[in-house]
Amino acid sequence: MKAANEIRLTDWGMEYAVRPCAIASFFVFMAFLWTMPLQHVIAYPFVFLFFGAIMGSAWFGGIVAGFVAVALSSLIITYFFVPPLYSMYVAKESQSFFAAFILCSIAITVVSSSRKRAENAIRVARDQLEAKVQERTAELRQSNLEIKESERQLRILTEAIPQQIWRTDSQGCVEYCNQHLCDYLGQRTEELRGEAFFNAIHPEDKPLFYQGWQAALKSGDRFEIEARVRAGDGSYRWFLVRSIPQRWEDGQIARWYGIHIDIQQQHRAQQNLVQAQDDLARMQRLLSMAEMAASIAHELNQPLTAVVTHAYACREWLQAKPANIERASATAEKIVQESTRAGVVVRRVRALFQKEEQVRELTSMNRLIQELAHVLRDEAIRKDVSIRLLLAHDLPQSEMDPVQIQQVILNLAMNGMDAMMQVAKPRELILRTEHHGVGEILVAVEDHGPGIAPEAAARMFEPFFSTKPQGTGMGLAICRGIIEAHDGKIWAENSVRGGAILQFTMRSQS
Amino acid sequence: MTERPDTSMDQRETVFIVDDDASIREGVSNLLEAVGINAKCYATAEGFSAHWSNAMAGCLLLDARLPGIGGVEFQERLRTSGAQIPVIFMTAHGDIPMVRKVMKAGAVEFLTKPFQKEELLNAVEQAFASDRARRMEKAILDSIQARIDSLTPREREVMDMVAIGLTNKEIAERLYLSVVTIKLHRGQVMRKMQAESLADLVKMSEKINTHRSGAK
Questions:
Q1: A277, A266, A476: which is closest to A377 by C-alpha?
Q2: Interface check A310 vs B, CB under 8 A
Q3: Which residues of A touch B34 (CB under 8 A)?
Q4: How many CB atoms lie within 10 A of CB B111?
């Protein structure tokens, strides 16, 4: 610490004491050396060289050296050159001269040193400017390199990205296609100029595509369409074509960038979903047959009740003393009317249930259940139930009406999910298939609900038996009907883990 | 209020049939008419409500499946609105939870269509009996109330105290009256209330009190 201070002190001394003193002494000594001989040649008093010394000191050594030079010069001039010579005394007649000398010296010092400082400042500024310019130049060079590199990367990206990318000019003329697009179309960019590009669109999608593209070009809005695009080998795949314009600063469209995203998979999945929704709707229609049966019963009951009551009334009118023949025959007329009405209902129902040809298709039960699980997914999510499939592999196929069997499983699954509404999570519904002896398969629907009460177990497959407030009591009865029509057996039991297992067997191909 | 000893005879007992199906209404009313029971038909619950008052005699034969307001809800609404008509339900299909619900809510009977004559007539008879008992009870209450209304405030005070078993002397002390005055009031109360004995008076007082607290 102390050492550092000392060093700083000596630095300071060098800068502001020793160096200025040395410079001042040097210049003043030089001036003195020259003045000594010259004073004999040039008129008295010859002191102008000292001005040069002071100026030099101030210039090279700064203002401190300047003042030291002034002081030294003053002493030397007083001693050597101002009468009386060789004394520190200044004669009266020389005093004004001497004062003028000192004033001039000071002025020279100040002007010279400030001049030097300004020059120094200019030089420093210039140096700094130069350094900065060099720095900037280097930066510019670097950023140019970077831009080039990123351009290269971008190009690599457009080529490497597993998507088809293109660029057109503001008029929609193809300027660039990446390798993927060219490979897919089997054409080079040059071949795609103009209308050629549209020839790759499927004829059915082309008009809409063309129209949409032209409209986008006109309006400058983003363009998006799904269309089939022909590959080089002539096959078509679904693509999502998306394009956005790039604009100049003034808002004019500079060019369009576009991408073709292959959505063949999604498109197929979507189609499957639509299909599944159709299936579900159909199954729901079939399920509602249960409700229809209940409403038929009601409709039939009404005229039947009227017939019975009218018949009783008719007997009463006839048995009255005296018999009221008029009322009795009017009542009999009513009986005819109501019976006819009941007959109409029966005829309508018969027409509705006209036995259609029995469908029997060789079907994979596992595939059927997988499809169904897909259909049930929304319902399961809504009811917070997870569906687990435990499907026996190498399950033989069965002869069945797939729609009816799906309806049965759907019904059992819905019942299972409903049963679990009352219990805490996690709720899991298991759909299981297994071999069941020779030439027979078993399908089980297992829930974690409260299970089946003993009194319900005996009657649950009977018509009009229901434990649900809104139930018609027809669902399981219809299920039994369908399974029995397939030469199968349906029954229920309680699981050892709690919950119910509803299961049925069916004959399969051995 | 005028005295009405028995209203069961001054109005014919009627079965009010509420069913949206005209053929059922016709059939049932025809049968009832044939056996000499008065019947009135309504297609909707609202139609019946507009017509009904507690002073009317009879019972309600109600279809459990009515459009708009269901039969079960209608029964509930009748009960909360203070209508005291006995209800017989009719339905096309026996729905056990529903049967339990309506029977708990005080239905007389639950008939499943199509029903036998005896089932219907038994149910109607039972409902009429229940209605008759209701009206009888009401008539008695009305007449007691009328007699109580004829008492002066002082006489009513005396009656209440007699009813809770206070002696003449105790009543006199509480009301700051002489025993003789109390005896006079008491005689007046017995006469106006047409009470044959003290026990009779106490019974009447209790009846009206339990009805009042029940009504609350």
A1: A277
A2: yes
A3: 312-314, 316-317, 320, 327, 331
A4: 20
- pLDDT band at B4; cut points 50, 70, 90: very low
Q: In what order do the strands lie in the sheet with A385-391?
A: A385-391, A427-435, A440-446, A500-507, A489-494
Tokens of A394: 């190498």
Neighbouring residues of A181: CB distance < 8 A, sequence distance ≥ 6: A164, A165, A166, A260
Among partner residues A301, A309, A464, which is closest to B30 by beta-carbon distance? Answer: A309
Pairwise CA distance, residues A116 & A118, whole Å? 5
Rounded mean pLDDT, B174-183: 89
Which tens digit of pLDDT belongs to each residue from A449-489? 888 888 787 778 876 677 776 666 677 888 888 888 888 89
Q: Give pLDDT, residue A46.
A: 66
- Kindly determine whether residue B116 and residue A308, on different chains, have CB atoms separated by under 8 Å: yes
| Tokens encoding A448 | 């974690």
Contact A306 B33 (CB under 8 A): no
Q: Which of A429, A371, A436, A356 is nearest to A398 (CA)?
A: A436
Q: Are strands A440-446 and A427-435 parallel, antiparallel or unpaired?
A: antiparallel
Question: Which residues does residue A257 pair with via DSSP β-bridges, in sequence order?
Answer: A167, A244
Report d(CA B6, CA A502) in Å as an integer: 63
What average pLDDT does this structure show over B30-59? 88
CA end-to-end span of chain B: 21
What is the rounded CA–CA span in Å between residue A166 and residue A157? Answer: 13
Could you read off the pLDDT of A109-161 as tens digits, one per residue?
Answer: 899 889 888 998 999 999 999 999 999 999 999 999 999 999 888 888 877 77
Q: What is the mean pLDDT of residues B141-155?
A: 88
Interchain CB distance below 8 Å, B21 and A327: no
Q: Nearest 5 degrees, angle CA A241-CA A243-CA A244? A: 160
Rounded Cα gap, residues A54 and A109, in angstroms: 6
A316-330, A380-394, B5-19, B46-60: least confidently modelled range: B5-19
CA distances from B164 to A30, A246, B157 (A): 148, 101, 11
**C-alpha span between A228 and A236 (Å, rounded):** 6
pLDDT in tens, A432-453: 999 887 889 999 999 988 888 8
Dihedral sign for Cα A133, A136, A142, A147, please: negative
SS3 content of chain A, % helix, strand, coil (to 5): 60, 15, 20
CA gap B85, B127 in Å, rounded: 9
Which pLDDT score is estimated for A279? 67
The DSSP bridge pattern shows strands A440-446 and A500-507 to be: antiparallel
CB A70 within 8 A of CB A102: yes
pLDDT value for A45: 60
Q: Which of these, A493, A505, A499, A373, lies nearest to A447 by C-alpha position?
A: A499
**Contacts B27 to A, Cβ<8 Å:** 305-310, 313, 334, 338
The verdict on pTM exceeding 0.80 is: no
- Residue that the structure tokens 């499943």 belong to: B112
Burial degree of A173 (CB within 10 A; 0-12, 13-18, 19+): middle
Structure tokens at A261: 């995203």
Positions in chain A whose pLDDT score sits under 70: 1-9, 43-46, 194, 277-291, 351-357, 463-464, 469-473, 510
Distance separating alpha carbons of residues A392 and A432, to the nearest angstrom: 8
Length of chain A: 510
CB-based contact (8 Å) between A317 and chain B?
yes
ipTM above 0.85, yes or no: no
In B81-197, alpha helices (H): 96-104, 117-149, 153-163, 168-175, 179-192
Distance CA A431, CA A387 (A): 7
